[in-house]
Amino acid sequence: LGRVSDTPEVMRVYISSFWERPFMHTDNSKLFEAERNDLLTDLRNLPRNAAVRKVNELVKRARLAKVHAYIISYLRSQMPTLWGKDSKQRELIENLNLVFYELHKKHHLPVGDFPEMGRMKECCATA
C-alpha cells in the first residue's frame, strides 16, 4: 500500500465482516469484533486527529523555514561583496553538505529538518 498512498504513515487495514448477519465461522469472531470496534473508534476520532495533523504540519513547516533561514543567512555571509561571486557560489553549492553539517552542529538543528540535498543544490544553482 505504500506505493498507492503518498503518506509516511503506515496504513492500517481493518479485518472484519461489516454486514448485519452473524458470522458464518466463529473462529475469528473476537478478532473481527475488535477490529470493527477499532474502526468505529478511529472514525469517531477523525475530527480530533485532523486538528492534531494540522498542528503537526504547521510545526514541520516552521522548522523547515527556520533551517532555510539559517542556510540562506550562512550562504549570504560567505559570498564576497565585490568580485568572484560566481566561483564562490559554485564552491558553496559543491560543498553544501559541509554547510549543512556546520549549521547542524553550530545551531543544534535536527538533520531531518534539512531539505533534500539534491533539490537544494538545484535551487541554489538556478538562483
Name the overall outline: rod-shaped
Between the first and last Cα atoms, what is the distance in angstroms?
Answer: 38 Å
Unreliable stretches covering 5 or more consecutive residues = none
Count of separate DSSP helical elements: 5
Key descriptive features of the protein:
127 residues; mainly alpha; rod-shaped
How would you describe this protein?
64% of the residues lie in helices and 0% in strands. The chain has helices spanning 29-44, 46-78, 85-94, 96-107, 117-126. The mean pLDDT is 87.
The gist of it:
The chain is an all-alpha fold. The chain is 64% helix and 0% strand.
Q: What is the element layout, followed by pairings?
A:
Elements: H1 29-44, H2 46-78, H3 85-94, H4 96-107, H5 117-126
